[in-house]
Design a protein that fits this description.
alpha/beta, Nucleotidyltransferase, domain 5, 3 domains, 5-stranded mixed beta sheet, 13 helices, globular, disordered N terminus
Length: 378
């Protein structure tokens, strides 16, 4: 008689393996898609931010896949409004989590494709399994900032929002005044109180009250901006941000620009070469070369848009304040005598070269050739 394998009562039947989890994060609900790579996905819905419900779903998924409670769990989700707290919490729970760039996720190229949270979670789950199997170039995994690095970026981002709000208030007041053929020189400036007092009677009472409330909000925004700027200057004076101080020594780069370059780029990321730097800024070319078709599609624009626009502004400023530098002379030879369109194209190329030069300046202390420093304060 053939000997059959006997399964003992109470023996641990858990299988060795790993659990893969994909999160699709919504405002009110989260979708979880879980699998061990052998079985089809099990899907769960939890209230957004309910950590205990997430742990319960992980436990149920392990039981369904017959995995031990101590089995390794790997997860992923797309970067979005929930930020990094979920990533840090998952790591604390022993889950090996990654945060991926949503723009790097491959999609179906058909004209119409079905899309919902369940399908998105299943797609992320399949890609996570491929990534863990060794297909590392399937998407872009984001570097996780520390809590301090993430918090340090808040000052500049708040100031940028206040700048936009200030512009909106000024434009709104100007538009309301034009309704009665009134045009103030500098709304909210030093001469505003006197100008408004002399023109108040030309504005109907309801509109007058609306303008005064708008100006009150404008004054509050300006006060908050001054407080933030004073805090930045004080911290730089105390040498709390050495990279900001070094960048500010170069002519054409002010405190605000140096602060943004530090907190958004060089202060929390390390680059191995200039291509990685350009890719993080979205300033790398995207050629299309297939068969007989060869087209240059322009810059990828896949990086940090705040820094990309800032570097273009700095490139114009560099031409003005560093005319003898090698970068400015290169631009003059290549684009200064060309038409208006080519000069705009050239300024983006200059912005890319300037980013590389500033990176080398901070990493190796190499001052851009021909560039000058600001005179030391007395």
């Amino acid at each position: 008689m053939a000997t059959s394998q006997t399964v003992l009562q109470g023996e641990d039947k858990a299988e060795q393996g790993e659990l893969y989890i994909a999160f699709e994060l919504g405002d009110k609900q989260w979708k979880l898609s879980c699998s061990d790579g052998q079985r089809g996905p099990s899907r769960y819905s939890v209230s957004a931010g309910d950590k205990q419900a997430v742990l319960d779903c992980i436990g149920r998924a392990k039981a369904r896949c017959r995995l031990a409670a101590s089995a390794k769990a790997r997860s992923c989700y797309e970067a979005g409004r929930d930020g990094w707290w979920l990533h840090r919490w998952l790591l604390e729970q022993g889950v090996d989590n990654i945060v991926v760039d949503s723009a790097s996720i491959e999609v179906n190229r058909r004209a119409r494709r079905a899309k919902n949270d369940r399908l998105d979670a299943d797609k992320l789950l399949a890609m996570l399994q491929r990534y863990c199997a060794g297909e590392r170039r399937i998407w872009a995994v984001l570097r996780t900032p520390t809590v301090q690095e993430e918090d340090a970026r808040r000052i500049d981002r708040e100031r940028q929002r206040l700048t936009d709000e200030r512009t909106a208030h000024i434009n709104r007041v100007g538009s309301l005044l034009v309704l009665h053929n009134l045009r103030a020189g500098r709304i909210g400036g030093r001469d505003w109180a006197g100008w408004w007092k002399s023109h108040t009677e030309q504005v109907p009472p309801v509109l007058r009250a609306e303008i005064e409330r708008e100006v009150e909000r404008l004054v509050l925004v300006k006060e908050q901006m001054r407080a933030i700027e004073a805090q930045q200057r004080q911290e730089v004076a105390n040498n709390a941000h050495p990279l900001v101080s070094r960048l500010s020594q170069l002519r054409a780069i002010g405190l605000d620009s140096a602060w943004k370059l530090d907190k958004e780029l060089v202060g929390w990321r390390s680059f191995s070469n200039r291509r990685q730097l350009g890719a993080s800024l979205g300033l790398t070319p995207t050629p299309y070369d297939s068969g007989n078709s060869q087209v240059e599609q322009g810059n990828s624009k896949a990086g940090n848009k705040r820094l990309r626009s800032l570097l273009v502004e700095l490139a114009w400023s560099w031409l003005r304040y560093q005319p003898d530098s090698a970068l400015s002379q290169w631009y003059g030879r290549r684009f200064a005598a060309a038409g208006k369109r080519m000069r705009r194209v050239g300024i983006v190329a200059l912005a890319r070269r300037l980013a590389i030069a500033l990176w080398r300046y901070l990493q190796h202390g190499e001052i851009p050739p021909g560039a000058t420093l600001k005179p030391a304060a007395a």
